[in-house]
Design a protein that fits this description.
With 272 residues, the chain is an alpha/beta fold. It is built from twelve helices and eight strands. Strands 1-2-3-4-5-6-7-8 form an eight-stranded parallel barrel, surrounded by seven helices.
């Protein structure tokens, strides 16, 4: 498992950091087998694997359940768990209690929190020894306000994002995820910050990249964002399911090759 110091060294040495968002045991096993540096258990699991319309419905219990499965599948990978909507921003005591619960019960290496307004939260968690990854730019928990679109598209917003990035670093964030922002702005922030900056829809000059497992492998996803590259096509599994259905209906499955050879009824019916 790469440590936080080793991830920091990758930035210093200008070696790119790979991160994949995954949500369960089998996907985590594959991600670890591929030598990906970091797994993010994102609250996007709400839409991707739970079928919700947004991340808002995702609970702390959901995040714990899925992150524990990911940790079992990837025991030797740096794992980050999302703080879901409503689990931060209530009051300092409640926020910290939930942060401790997420960090402790999941065996994650850090937690991720969205928004520039959480500098005090980052400080409080850091004081407790909980590493916090900040998330700026497009923050999915706030799409009800900002919408799913590129952020920081004008001078004032770009300057504000730079200030926010410095602020979360100063507060103690160990890493920053930048989502859906102009590539030159992301490059500037990555260059100026000391902590690793991971981009998603933020160009190639960030310190690393993150994509969602289901997006990059076309697994149960109806549409793709502009910044998603498809590396494989798991949708072909539908063809296998169709063939299985046909073979069950026709009696072709199971064949002798998939049936135990042992016969027992002659013994059952024999008179002792």
């Amino acid at each position: 498992m790469k440590t936080l110091n080793q991830l920091q060294d990758l930035k210093v040495n200008k070696e790119k950091i790979s991160m994949v968002t995954a949500y369960d045991y089998p996907s985590a096993k594959q991600v670890e087998a591929a030598d990906i540096d970091i797994i993010l258990v994102g609250d996007s699991l709400g839409m991707t694997v739970l079928g919700y319309d947004s991340t808002v419905q995702v609970t702390v219990a959901d995040m714990i359940h899925h992150t524990k499965a990911v940790r079992r599948g990837a025991p030797n990978t740096y794992v980050i768990v999302d703080v879901p909507f409503g689990a931060v921003g209530v009051n300092d005591q409640y926020d910290l209690e939930i942060a401790v619960k997420l960090y402790k019960e999941t065996d994650a290496n850090g937690i991720k929190a969205e928004g520039a307004h959480l500098t005090q939260y980052i400080k409080n968690c850091s004081n407790m020894g909980i590493p916090v990854v900040s998330h700026l730019g497009l923050t999915p928990q706030s799409v009800g306000i900002m919408g799913y679109k590129m952020q920081a598209g004008n001078k004032e917003a770009a300057r504000q994002l730079i200030e926010d990035a410095y602020a979360v670093q100063q507060a103690g964030a160990v890493m920053l995820v930048l989502e859906a922002v102009p590539s030159d702005l992301a490059a500037e922030i990555s260059d100026k910050l000391d902590i690793p900056v991971i981009g998603i829809g933020a160009g190639k000059e960030t310190d690393g990249q993150v994509l969602v497992y289901h997006d990059m492998l076309n697994y149960g996803v109806d549409r793709h964002a502009k910044f998603v590259k498809q590396y494989s096509d798991f949708s072909i599994g539908i063809n296998g399911l169709k063939q299985y259905n046909e073979e069950v209906k026709s009696g072709a499955f199971p064949s002798e090759a998939h049936t135990y050879k042992k016969k027992i009824m002659s013994e059952v019916n024999k008179n002792d």
